[in-house]
């Protein structure tokens, strides 16, 4: 009723408003003591106005947030979430998996493989612009065609994650969302803390409180071996001399995971990936931008270590990595806690997922030259001290023993598949501004 009254007094045209205003001033002349009241009222309302104006920026931010919240809520959205995470009835394993970073390179491949065999898969990705987001959107389109819904959101968004766990009882979380790239860590260090530490802790917090708690498999990195010189790198080796903030956050992730396993009974498996490559890969990786620049006849920086030493990587093909991820997932034991309380010891594992045959970066360039039929303009330079390590080499016997992990794709074969995809996706250099 009151609002109707107020509404009735709101001038509907500027003309009417002016009339009221003049009336008001007229009354002021008859009641001089009202001038004081009016003055303080103006000051008071002025302050309120200033406050509202200032908070309008906050409310804009909030409205972005609430827009986001709106964009993921509602019955239609919940239906999509449930249907994507639904296990196909005849499937052998019958998992319902939340894949974070599903629009990413490894995430999109793993999601597809899980869905193909009948597991329920729900993706989560914030589609950030660390590298060309159109590539992430293209992966999303592919996944959608396969019945995988990717929820757009950040792993730090507690409200969203809680909602997802309310809608679906995930049996597993494949946590692949991260801020990647060893060299970019010098430009944007906070993004590594945000995703690889704060975001990971948020995921663990949600999982620890979930009932039932899911088993978690997450992405660590070969970079945790840092400046180690003993090869091949074995899971038992020291990991306390990282060469980049990226590596340090991945190492911190392993320690944090151990804590959650110890206190809350979460089943946790960390995978140390060794320079993964292949179709639908990441444009920030050397093999990817070397391809682009060789095709454009642009010079490429090829690193060498001191005294013209070789810089080498244990490049691992994406299909082998996917097999490793699924093997790790299939051998997880259940988490033992519930509602944030540990009920018994839970599984904690770390595995190397590499190829076990390091290749010098100069050989990688030679393979690309042959595949692309273009001579590279090599600019050989000293390995910069910005996060890179001279070599990586995985000992994979642990993964082999635990779930029969056995990579089968050599660099030549894998790069051939990559180049085929690259040429199809980007055409003859037209779309290659990534
Ligand atoms: O497995 C990992 O744990 C990490 O793999 C990846 O790191 P890296 O192995 O360093 O891959 P990538 O950048 O492709 O460089 C490949 C090679 O090219 C050399 N390299 C690189 C750049 C350049 O300009 N020139 C050059 O010679 C360079 O020295 C190196 O020898 C991921 O970025 C990281 O997110 C993480 O997942």
UniProtKB/TrEMBL annotation:
UniProt-listed InterPro entries: Epimerase_deHydtase, NAD(P)-bd_dom_sf
Catalytic activity from the UniProt record: UDP-alpha-D-glucuronate = UDP-alpha-D-galacturonate
Entries under Gene3D superfamilies matching the protein: NAD(P)-binding Rossmann-like Domain, UDP-galactose 4-epimerase, domain 1
Subcellular location(s) per record: Golgi apparatus, Golgi stack membrane
Source organism superkingdom: Eukaryota
Keyword ATP-binding attached: no
Domain NAD-dependent epimerase/dehydratase: 97-334
Pfam family, one: Epimerase
Membrane-crossing residue ranges in chain numbering: 34-53
GO terms for cellular component: Golgi cisterna membrane
Record's subunit section: Homodimer.
Protein name, UniProt field: UDP-glucuronate 4-epimerase
């Amino acid at each position: 009723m009151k609002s109707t009254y107020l509404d009735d007094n709101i001038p509907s045209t500027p003309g009417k408003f002016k009339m009221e205003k003049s009336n008001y001033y007229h009354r002021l002349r008859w009641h001089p003591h009202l001038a004081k009241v009016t003055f303080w009222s103006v000051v008071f309302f002025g302050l309120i106005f200033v406050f509202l104006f200032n908070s309008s920026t906050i409310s804009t931010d909030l409205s972005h947030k609430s827009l986001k919240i709106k964009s993921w809520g509602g019955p239609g959205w919940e239906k999509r979430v449930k249907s994507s995470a639904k296990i196909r009835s005849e499937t052998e394993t019958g998992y319902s998996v939340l894949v974070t970073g599903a629009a990413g390179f490894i995430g999109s491949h793993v999601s597809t493989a899980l869905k193909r065999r009948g597991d329920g898969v729900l993706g989560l990705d914030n589609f950030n612009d660390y590298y060309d987001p159109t590539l992430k959107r293209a992966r999303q389109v592919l996944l959608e065609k396969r019945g995988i819904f990717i929820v757009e959101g950040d792993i730090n968004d507690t409200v969203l994650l809680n909602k997802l766990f309310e809608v679906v009882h995930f049996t597993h979380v494949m946590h692949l969302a991260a801020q990647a790239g060893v060299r970019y860590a010098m430009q944007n260090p906070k993004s590594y803390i945000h995703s690889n530490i704060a975001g990971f802790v948020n995921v663990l917090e949600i999982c620890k409180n979930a009932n039932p708690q899911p088993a978690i498999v997450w992405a660590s990195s070969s970079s945790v071996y840092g400046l180690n010189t003993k090869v091949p790198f074995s899971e038992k080796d020291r990991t306390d001399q990282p060469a980049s903030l990226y590596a340090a956050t991945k190492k911190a992730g392993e320690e944090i995971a151990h804590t959650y396993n110890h206190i809350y009974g979460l089943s946790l498996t960390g995978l140390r990936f060794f320079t993964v490559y292949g179709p639908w890969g990441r444009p920030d990786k050397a093999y990817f931008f070397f391809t682009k620049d060789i095709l454009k006849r642009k010079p490429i920086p090829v690193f060498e270590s001191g005294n013209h030493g070789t810089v080498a990587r244990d490049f691992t093909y994406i299909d082998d990595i996917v097999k490793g991820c699924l093997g790790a997932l299939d051998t997880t034991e259940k988490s033992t806690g519930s509602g944030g309380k540990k009920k018994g010891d839970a599984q904690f594992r770390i595995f190397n997922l590499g190829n076990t045959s390091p290749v010098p970066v100069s050989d990688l360039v030679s393979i690309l030259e042959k595949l692309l039929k273009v001579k590279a303009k090599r600019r050989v330079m000293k390995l910069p001290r910005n996060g890179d390590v001279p070599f990586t080499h995985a000992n994979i016997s642990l993964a082999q023993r635990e779930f029969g992990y056995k990579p089968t794709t050599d660099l030549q074969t894998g790069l051939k598949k990559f180049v085929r995809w690259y040429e199809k996706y980007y055409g003859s250099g037209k779309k290659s501004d990534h």
